[in-house]
Design a protein that fits this description.
This protein is mainly α. It is built from six helices and no strands.
Length: 152
């Protein structure tokens, strides 16, 4: 049985988002172990959230990472507040996923996938906005008073 077929059975059982939409966003076709398909789908979602979360943390709380320090400066305090609200939304799902990692409950995984997918478009829009700003920051010349000094 293919991943798509296995998921489609679960889709009917739990009224989940269509496979094609989730596959396009989270690369479900790459799942190799379909015995616990909903658990694997949740893990794919968590992988993407982990990558996004890491970038957001570097912007919101830069440490000695040069890219984080450089990129953090392009966000105003208001933008950082908006970014933190998006971070909170993401962390809610990260922590739910952690609980489900321990719980191993098919119905709970299905509920997680459905709830997450309902919010995904707004989360994705916020990520897109942040990503554009980060990309733009590397294309602009720094102004005189913004020059980075030695960090060692």
């Amino acid at each position: 049985m293919t991943v798509k077929e296995k998921y489609s059975g679960m889709c009917r059982k739990y009224k989940l988002p269509p496979f094609e939409k989730l596959d396009a966003e989270f690369e479900l076709s790459g799942i190799e172990q379909e015995d616990f398909i909903l658990r694997e789908v949740r893990k794919k979602i968590e992988e993407k959230l982990a990558a996004v979360r890491k970038v957001m943390e570097e912007v919101l709380q830069p440490e000695s990472n040069l890219a984080g320090i450089y990129e953090s400066r392009v966000f105003s305090e208001e933008e950082k507040k908006e970014l933190f609200e998006l971070y909170r939304k993401i962390m809610k799902f990260v922590r739910q996923g952690f609980e489900l990692y321990v719980k191993a409950d098919e119905k709970a995984d299905a509920n997680f996938i459905s709830a997450f997918f309902r919010e995904w478009e707004s989360i994705k829009a916020g990520i897109g906005k942040m990503s554009s700003k980060l990309q733009d920051s590397w294309q602009k010349e720094m102004e005189g008073d913004e020059k980075l000094g030695y960090f060692g």
